[in-house]
Amino acid sequence: MALHPLDWSKERVADYMTPDPETLRPDDRIAWALKLMHIGGYRHVPLTDRDGRPVGVVSIKDIIEYIIDLFPSPVLNLPPEPHRGHSTDEGGGSD
Question: Comparing C-alpha atoms, which of 55, 47, 60, 49 is closest to residue 21?
Answer without folding.
Answer: 47
